[in-house]
Design goal:
The chain has about 450 residues and is an alpha/beta fold. The chain has helices spanning about 50-65, 105-115, 120-125, 135-145, 150-155, 160-170, 175-180, 195-200, 235-245, 270-275, 295-310, 325-330, 340, 365-385, 405-415, 425-435, 435-440; strands at about 5-10, 15-20, 30-35, 40, 45, 70-80, 85, 155-160, 175, 185, 190-195, 210, 215, 225-230, 230, 250-255, 260, 280, 290-295, 395-400, 420-425, 450-455, 460. It is built from 17 helices and 23 strands. The protein is globular. InterPro entries: ATPase_NBD, FGGY_C_2, FGGY_N.
């Protein structure tokens, strides 16, 4: 029986670590999920268990090779961003994998911005809102001044996807999707590293830049597969859409964060946009992607629980609430609307948490109000990436794409655009495989990866 050519993709999230095997039609033929117990850094802050992650890569490959029906052609990696592995000359990690949620020392932040310009100007140059350790470049800056002896030993600072690639290729490289994502490392005007890296002698600690579709030979014993250099997960999730659609679009990727991504918008970030958590990514071909972020998934979970508790309902019922146009119309008569009342820098603040649940006739009415408030926020956020660029379609993927109330309200908010719920299994992992398609797949790029469901105002058309 002929073996099935496959690619293995390691998709590493903060919580779940997933392994997928895709065949040449991008169908999942094998998968497994793991969770690792967190460890702690020297300050007692929680962080990723790097040893568990490293060992899982090798253990997973050995398991794949036991499945004789598969012919492993390639391996690639996608992980969350803003996470550096600092390695010495031998490739050995020198520190824990610090958590990007670790508090950033205020005195170091003041020192940095006093040296390299005010926050607003620097944020514009690097397309990076001021986010502390979420700006991974500032993690390197912190290491230099807080642990100078460790800093001296660093051969390269590798973002997590590139460290995982190094484990199988033996080569240390840097990829643009990791560098170009709120890192404060990249000057988007100069299209090069920002000059502060040279001033701080950090630039020599950045491994050579490679395109995100590069592949390297494997050094895994007894194998001949090629190894991708890894991608930042948000950039990877955009790739199936770039492959499938030529017409300009915005993708709203929803989960814990709701991220509006516009790969067709090249306008510079403004001060107002940066205050409201807009940024630029670099997509896998190297061009900028304008993005805006909301913490709506987290907000949704908190407020749905509050509704369920108040009305003494089982929270599970809110997974399948149908849109009620009459309720939405009634509530909208009493809404002032976030779009006209938002203050600078207040986009992330919740409207619904200030509402008195006793004002609603029942939990369904309260739920519709929650979704109206969330969509009002979403509209303001998405408008930032729509400005200055003609777009015809909005795609929504992730959790809210399955939410009837959210999708109808979003369609009402954008009557001039085509609004679609997009459905595909494991967009990030598929994008990671697509990035190196030509090195492992003998078939043409597929164009039927994504299922679309069209929403138009209050009427749903399948």
């Amino acid at each position: 029986m002929a073996q099935i050519p496959v690619i293995a993709v390691f998709d590493v999230g903060k919580t779940n670590k997933k392994l997928f095997l895709f065949d040449e039609n991008y169908k999942i033929v094998f998968e497994r999920t793991a969770r690792f117990t967190e460890t702690h850094d020297e300050d007692g802050d929680p962080c990723e268990n790097l040893d568990s992650l490293r060992l899982s890569v090798f253990d997973s490959l050995r398991e794949i090779f036991k499945h004789k029906e598969f012919d492993l052609k390639a391996v690639n990696f996608s992980t969350y961003g803003a996470s550096f592995v600092y390695v010495d000359e031998d490739g050995t990690p020198l520190t824990p994998l610090y958590n990007y949620l670790k508090p950033y020392p205020p005195e170091l932040s003041r020192q940095f911005y006093q040296t390299y310009g005010d926050e607003e100007r620097f944020a514009r140059e690097t397309a990076s809102p001021v986010l502390g350790n979420l700006n991974s470049g500032l993690q390197l800056y912190r290491l230099k001044y807080q642990q100078p002896e460790v800093f001296k030993k660093i051969r390269y600072a590798l973002h997590l996807p590139q460290y995982m690639s190094y484990l199988l290729s033996g080569q240390m490289v840097t990829d643009l999707t990791s560098i170009g994502c709120h890192t404060a490392l990249w000057d988007f005007t100069a299209n090069d590293y920002h000059k502060w890296l040279t001033d701080e002698a950090i630039l020599p600690k950045m491994a050579p830049l490679k395109p995100a579709d590069s592949v390297l030979p494997s050094v895994f014993p007894g194998s001949r597969f090629c190894v991708g250099i890894g991608l930042h997960d948000s950039s990877a999730a955009l790739i199936p859409y770039l492959v499938s659609f030529n017409m300009p679009f915005v993708l709203i990727s929803t989960g814990t964060w709701s991220i509006s991504l516009n790969p067709f918008n090249q306008t510079p970030l403004t001060a107002d946009e940066l205050k409201n958590d807009c940024l630029n990514y670099l997509q896998y071909k190297g061009s900028p992607v304008k993005a805006s972020r909301l913490f709506t998934g987290h907000e949704y979970e908190q407020q749905v629980k509050r509704i369920a508790d108040h009305f003494n309902r089982d929270i599970i019922i809110y997974r399948t609430i149908n849109y009620d146009a009459a309720i939405a119309a009634k509530l909208n008569l009493h809404n002032s609307g976030l779009t006209s009342s938002k203050q600078d820098g207040e986009l992330q603040k919740s409207f619904f948490e200030q509402r008195d649940l006793n004002d609603f006739a029942d939990d369904i009415e309260a739920y519709h109000q929650l979704m109206i408030d969330i969509v009002n926020q979403q509209t303001v956020s998405t408008n930032y990436v729509l400005q200055g660029c003609k777009v015809q379609r909005i795609f929504v993927d992730g959790g809210f794409s399955k939410n009837s109330v959210f999708m109808h309200l979003l369609a009402l908010a954008y009557p001039q655009l085509e609004v679609y719920a997009a459905s595909m299994a494991q967009a990030t992992a598929v994008g990671t495989a697509l990035a190196i398609h030509s090195c492992w797949n003998s078939k043409a790029l597929p164009h039927d990866l994504i299922e679309l469901k069209y929403y138009s105002g209050a009427k749903e058309v399948v």
